[in-house]
Every structure is written in C-alpha cells, then in structure tokens.
Amino acid sequence: KSQTDLRKYFLHRLFLFDILVFLPIPQVVMLCMLLDVRAMKSLKTLQILNIFIFFQYWPRVFQIYLPRKDLGSNHEILGGRPWVLGPLDFFLYIIAGHVLGAFWYCFSIQRTVACWYMACENHGGCVRNSFYYCNHNFGYHSVLDDFCPKNMTNAELFDFGVYLDAHQSYILESKNIPQKIFYCFCWGMRNLSSFGSNLRTSNDVWENCFVLCVTIFGLLLFLYYMGNFQIYLQRRITSKSKAEAAKRKEKNIKLWIENKKLQTETSDEITKIMEKKFHEEEDIYVEILISELPSQLQSDVKNQICFDPLQRG
C-alpha cells in the first residue's frame, strides 16, 4: 500500500475506532447525573446510562477480539508455541466474568432505586429524588426500610429477582472496594460458567434481558473455547504426523545415500538441502530425489552413481 492508502486506513478505521473506545462517555454521563440528582425523576434517566455503557462496551470487545484472531491465524507470531493461546483465552474468560459482575452490580443499584421509587409512590407526601441526599431532612427512610427490607420474604411487595443477593449481602452499602470487586467477580464467574441456569428472575423485562444475555454469552464462550481447543488438538495431531513422515523420508534418503556409496562431501550437501526442504515442509521422495537437487549437484551424483563404479571396475 502507498502512504496515502495507509493514512486513510488509520484515519478512517483504526484511529476513529480507538477514539470511540478511549472516550469515557459513561463516566461523563454519570458525573453529570450525580451533579444534578434532583433531575432524576424516573428510572429512565438511569437506564439511559445503560445504553452508553452498552455501546462503548462492544467496541472494546471487538478491539480485544481482533488481535486474538490475528494470533490464531498467524503461527509465525507465536514462534511455534500455539499453547500460548490457551492462557490468553482463559484470561479473556476471566475478563468476561469480571465485566458480567460489574454489570450485575450496576443493575442491582438501579433495582434498589426502583424499589425506593415504588415505596415513595405508596407513601403520600414523599419527594422522589429526596432520598439521594444523606443529609436531607427526610422522614421517610423508615418507609424505605419497611418497603425494601434486607430480609425480603414477600415477593409480591417488591421482587428483586437476581439482584436480591446484592441487596441482602450489603455489598451495595459496603465501602470496602476489594470486597465489592471480588464479590461481583465471583458472581459473574459462577453464573457465566453455569450459563445462568440457577438465576431466579422477577417479571422485570430488563432483568430478564440481562439473564438471557448471561445465558447466551456463557454458551457462546463455551462453544468458542471448545472450538479453539479442537483446532489446537487437530493442529497438534497434524504437526506430529508431518514430523513422523519427515523422519521416515529422511531415514529413507540417508539409506539411499549409503547404498549409492556417494562421496562424503556430496552426501553432506544433499543432507543440508534435504533438511532445508524438510524445514520448509516441502514434500520430498527418494524416487525423485536427484531431480530436486541443483544442476551441478545432480551431475556430481550421476557421475558418482554411474561412472565411478565403471572406473573402479
């Protein structure tokens, strides 16, 4: 490609794509929401944030997938060590579990806020966005505790669904950041590996969509890794069979050289050429060995095979 083509390629594809991934759009939107929480009169404001997170998350997944695809198709980059892809795929699986746990934590907060909104609707005189302020003179905190208790037993009052664990474990209120990270990571890995089969959902549409994504994503990852593992085994078997075939051919060629009683210098040259061709994975057969040699070496071999015995005779 010319320099102009390369410049257009990087400007229109890679560069703009990297900018889209790099921009902290969800963080900026969240900051704007926190600066003006009084404007959050409904859950739709929070759900808008989910759209920004979703549309920035998938480009990042695609950006991780492209280098992994190049590594899988180009064996020279790995230097003959295809097993490197195994730990890399496992690391990607770990990242997927971490991201899934982060989404679960984010949606758990939104589900808790939804419970607060419902409690506020059922209590007269309640201002919806007043419970965002810890120092606000709000006498309805007891209403929130009664309507959204930790030991929720009545699902008809409010069903937290898959977010009940986050509500009861106090992980949302905890200020211990490592505890939050590992708890959510553990939740993500457990449900990703089980395809979300143990999750009990409520009748909330977005919650069911999230669980469906967990199931589908876990199944796709499982099929992806199983397919890569089968490809790796097939390559190992093919490589082993090629190596064994090359050894047999090399042995036959050495026996042919010994039977023809070629000179040491000539046999060494033939051996070097054959080793080079074996390394390049070219097919070599004893029957056409002479035709595979350089012209000068062919003449030397023919002379030693045909004329030297006559001279000795």
Q: Could you characterize the architecture of this molecule?
A:
The protein has 11 helices and no strands. The protein has helices at residues 3-22, 25-35, 43-73, 75-78, 85-121, 141-147, 164-168, 177-193, 205-260, 264-279, 295-312. Helices cover 71% and strands 0% of the residues. It folds into 3 domains: 1-80; 81-245, no CATH class; 261-312, no CATH class. α2 (25-35) runs antiparallel to α3 (43-73). It is mainly α and 313 residues long. The longest helix has 56 residues, at 205-260. The protein is elongated and about 110 Å long.
Helix content: over 70%
Oligomeric state as shown? single chain
**Structural class of the secondary elements?**
mainly alpha
Mind telling me the C-alpha Rg?
Answer: 34 Å
Q: How far do the termini sit from each other?
A: 64 Å
Largest sheet: none
